[in-house]
Design a protein that fits this description.
Layout: E1 2-7, E2 28-32, E3 38-41, H1 46-58, E4 64-68, H2 74-77, E5 92-98, H3 105-112, E6 128-134, E7 137-141, E8 144-150, E9 158-164, E10 167-172, H4 192-201, E11 206-210, H5 229-238, E12 243-247, H6 255-272, E13 277-280, E14 286-288, E15 318-322, H7 326-338, E16 342-344, H8 352-359, E17 363-367, H9 372-385, E18 391-396, H10 399-402, E19 411-414, H11 419-434, H12 446-455, H13 465-478, E20 482-488, E21 492-499, E22 505-507, H14 512-516, E23 523-525, H15 538-541, E24 548-554, E25 563-569, H16 577-594
Parallel strand pairs: 3-4, 4-5, 5-6, 10-11, 11-12, 12-13, 15-16, 15-17, 17-18, 18-19
Antiparallel strand pairs: 1-2, 1-14, 2-3, 7-8, 8-9, 9-10, 20-21, 20-25, 21-22, 23-24, 24-25
Helix pairs in contact: 5-6, 7-11, 8-9, 13-16
Length: 600
C-alpha cells in the first residue's frame, strides 16, 4: 500500500513562505493498494492538488475512487468543489461519511455548495457519485477492509482503520483525549474510553494522528477536539505502532516550529522506549507499506456492519435531565433540543428513580453527587425491565472523578463543557443504541485478567482431546449444534476447542463471550434478535446467524476469567436450570484443565 499526504494542516489552510516544507493545505491523504484501488481520506484543500495529479496520471482514462470523510467541518470538505475527478462524466466515485440523526451525508455536503456560498451545486458534479452513510463497524471496499470508530470531537467524527496488502493504516484526525489529564500523556490505559482508542490504534503499520497542540497549550483549547503531541507519542508507544505521523498541524505553526515539535516528540518517544518511527506529516510525502510490521494477529472480521442503516426510529428519543445547577441544566437542555430529543428536566436527584420508572427514557443526564454510581446502577436495572440499554451521562466538576471507569456510567463529562460537546455525546449515544449492537465493557482489572490468560501459554496451540471432550459433551447434553472453549484476548476471542464450527477466532467486538466474562455470571441470550446488545451484531445478522447463546465464565484459581465455555444455536432457545447447572459443571472442569499439567 502506498500512502501519500496531500494536505496536513488543521483548521484553515495556511499558505506562505513559512509553511513550504510541511505544507499549508488542509487534511487530505491518498491510499493506493497494490491492485490499484484508490481511497482518499478527507477532502480538505489538499484535494485540489491530488485531483489534478490524478487526472494527469489517468491520461484520459476513467477514474474510480472512494472518498472517506471523517466529519463535515470545513477544513475536511472544503476541497470537494475543487476536486477535478468529480467533474469528469467518465469517472465513478463513492463518498462515505458519518451518518446524522436527521440529515444524510449528501444533505450535509450539499449545504456548503449552496448558491449563497458557491456557484456550483452538488447536483452539478458530472461524475457518477454514490453516497454512503456510516456508523461504527467494518466494511469492505474492493481489497481494502475498513473499520470505523467514533472519535472525541465536537462534531460526530469517525476514525478509520484501513487494511490492505497485509498492512494497516489508522487515520485518527480531530480527536481529543477523553480524559483531559491525559493531554500531558501518561498511562492511557487507565481511562476506559482512551483505552478503547488505544485498541483501535493497536499494531498499526502507520498511525496518522491529530497532534495539533502541545500540552501546555491544551488548557485553553479543551473541548476543541484535538490532541496534544504528548498524548499522541504515548498512544503510539502503548498501541505498539510501527510508524506514527504527527498530523493536522496548527495553522499558526511555521516549518521551523514544527521541526522543534518533531524533535521534542522524538525525545519523548525515545525516553519512553518507543521502538517505532515518528515523524511530522509533510505535504507530498509518500510512505510505502509492505505488509504488517507490528505482528498483530489477524482476526475474523464481519463485513458490512459500518454501512448498516441504524434503527433510529426504533429507540426512545427521550432524555431525562437531573442537574440542580442552572448553568449545567441550560447547556444540556439546549444540546438535547438541538438533537430534537424529548426532554424531562428539573428532576431532583431524589426523584430520578421514580421518574425513570414513569417515563422510561433512553438517555439520562445526571449532575454528579455522592450516590450517583448507585443511582446509575438502579437506572440500568430499570432500563432492562423495559427493554432499553439506557445511556447514562454524569457531569462532574471534579477532575479526579472524571476519569473513573465505572461500568454504570456511559460517559463522564467534565464541567465546564460546551453545548456542542454535549450534543455530540448525545448524538453518538443515540446512534450506538439504535444500531442495537454494543461492545462489551472491559472487565474489572482487565490487565490482570490478560496477564493470567497469557501465563497459561495456551493461546494459538493445537487442538487437544482434553478440551474437545468437554465441548462434545456440552453439545450432546444441551442439544446444541455448537460448543466452544473461548479465550478472550485483548483484541480477539480464540477457540481452544470448537465443536460444530470451523471458526478458530473472531474479533472481540462481536464476541458474546466478551460480555460473559465481565461479572462472572452465566450469560444466557434466548433470542439475539430481540436483545438490544446483539440484534445488529454481524454474527447475528450475517453468518453464522447466532440466535441463542449461553456462556459460563471460566474461573481460574486467582479469580480471573480468561474466557468461557459457551454453547450456540441457530434458533431461539432457553436452557432450564438443570441444563445451566450442567453447563456450569463442565465450565468448572475446563477451568481446572486450563491450569493442569497436560503431561500428567
Amino acid at each position: 500500500m502506498r500512502v501519500t499526504f496531500w494536505g496536513t494542516r488543521g483548521s484553515i489552510a495556511k499558505a506562505g513562505p513559512t509553511t513550504v516544507r510541511y505544507g499549508g493545505n488542509t487534511s487530505c491523504v491518498e491510499m493506493r493498494s497494490d491492485r490499484g484501488t484508490v481511497i482518499v481520506v478527507d477532502c480538505g484543500t489538499g484535494a485540489h492538488g491530488l485531483g489534478a495529479d490524478m487526472q494527469a496520471r489517468a491520461d484520459g482514462a476513467p477514474i474510480e475512487g472512494h472518498l472517506l470523510i471523517t466529519h463535515t467541518h470545513w477544513d475536511h470538505i472544503q476541497g470537494l468543489p475543487f476536486f477535478a475527478p468529480l467533474f469528469n462524466p467518465d469517472n465513478t466515485w463513492h463518498i462515505y461519511g458519518p451518518r446524522g440523526l436527521s440529515n444524510s451525508l449528501i444533505d450535509t455536503l450539499a449545504g456548503q455548495m449552496q448558491y449563497s456560498y458557491f456557484p456550483v451545486s452538488l447536483e452539478q458534479l458530472a461524475a457518477t457519485v454514490q453516497y454512503h452513510d456510516l456508523v461504527e463497524g467494518t466494511f469492505d471496499i474492493d481489497d481494502f477492509t475498513i473499520t470505523t470508530q467514533y472519535l472525541n470531537h465536537p462534531a460526530l467524527t469517525l476514525g478509520y482503520r484501513i487494511e490492505a496488502d497485509g498492512a494497516t493504516v489508522v487515520y485518527a484526525s480531530d480527536h481529543e483525549p477523553h480524559r483531559p489529564a491525559l493531554a500531558d500523556g501518561g498511562d492511557l490505559l487507565a481511562s476506559d474510553h482512551d483505552r478503547a482508542h488505544i485498541r483501535f490504534l493497536q499494531g498499526a503499520d502507520l498511525l496518522i494522528h491529530d497532534a495539533q497542540y502541545l500540552s501546555d497549550e491544551y488548557p485553553s483549547k479543551r473541548e476543541w477536539g484535538h490532541s496534544t503531541v504528548e498524548y499522541v507519542v504515548d498512544a503510539a508507544h502503548q498501541a505498539r505502532v510501527a510508524r506514527a505521523a504527527l498530523y493536522h498541524h496548527d495553522p499558526g505553526r511555521s516549518d521551523d516550529a514544527l521541526d522543534e515539535i518533531v524533535a521534542r516528540a522524538r525525545a519523548r518517544a525515545h525516553a519512553a522506549g518507543f521502538g517505532g518511527e515518528l515523524f511530522g506529516a509533510k505535504e507530498g510525502m509518500a510512505v510505502e507499506l509492505n505488509g504488517s510490521e507490528a505482528g498483530v494477529p489477524d482476526t475474523v472480521r464481519y463485513r458490512g456492519a459500518a454501512t448498516r442503516q441504524p434503527a433510529v426510529d426504533d429507540v426512545p428519543r427521550s432524555v431525562l435531565i437531573s442537574a440542580p445547577s442552572a448553568e449545567i441544566a441550560a447547556v444540556v437542555r439546549e444540546a438535547a433540543q438541538a438533537e430534537d430529543l424529548q426532554i424531562s428536566e428539573e428532576i431532583p436527584p431524589g426523584l430520578v428513580i421514580e421518574a425513570v420508572h414513569a417515563e422510561e427514557p433512553g438517555i439520562v443526564v445526571l449532575e454528579d453527587h455522592d450516590d450517583v454510581l448507585d443511582q446509575a446502577r438502579s437506572i440500568r436495572a430499570i432500563g432492562e425491565s423495559y427493554g432499553a440499554d439506557v445511556s447514562i451521562f454524569a457531569i462532574t466538576r471534579s477532575r479526579s472523578r472524571h476519569h473513573v471507569g465505572t461500568e454504570p456510567i456511559t460517559d463522564w463529562l467534565l464541567w465546564p463543557c460546551s453545548g456542542v460537546y454535549v450534543r455530540t455525546k448525545l448524538h453518538a449515544a443515540l446512534l450506538r443504541r439504535s444500531c442495537r449492537w454494543q461492545n462489551a465493557p472491559l472487565p474489572p482489572h482487565e490487565d490482570r485478567r490478560l496477564a493470567s490468560l497469557h501465563r497459561l501459554g495456551i493461546l494459538d496451540t493445537e487442538p487437544e482431546a482434553r478440551f474437545d471432550r468437554f465441548t462434545r459433551e456440552a453439545s450432546f447434553l444441551l442439544d446444541v449444534p455448537v460448543a466452544l472453549v473461548s479465550l478472550v484476548d485483548s483484541e480477539r476471542q480464540w477457540f481452544k476447542s470448537a465443536y460444530g464450527t470451523a471458526l478458530t477466532e473472531t474479533h472481540r467486538d462481536v464476541a458474546f463471550c466478551a460480555h460473559a466474562i465481565v461479572d462472572g455470571e452465566i450469560l444466557q441470550v434466548p433470542d439475539a434478535l430481540q436483545d438490544p446488545r446483539f440484534a445488529d451484531n454481524p454474527a447475528v445478522t450475517d453468518d453464522p446467524r447466532i440466535r441463542f447463546y449461553a456462556g459460563v465464565p471460566l474461573i481460574l484459581s486467582d479469580g480471573s476469567h480468561p474466557g468461557t465455555l459457551c454453547v450456540i444455536d441457530y434458533r431461539p432457545r432457553l436452557l432450564d436450570e438443570t441444563k445451566l447447572q450442567e453447563l456450569s459443571r463442565l465450565a468448572r472442569l475446563v477451568a481446572l484443565e486450563l491450569e493442569a499439567d497436560p503431561q500428567r
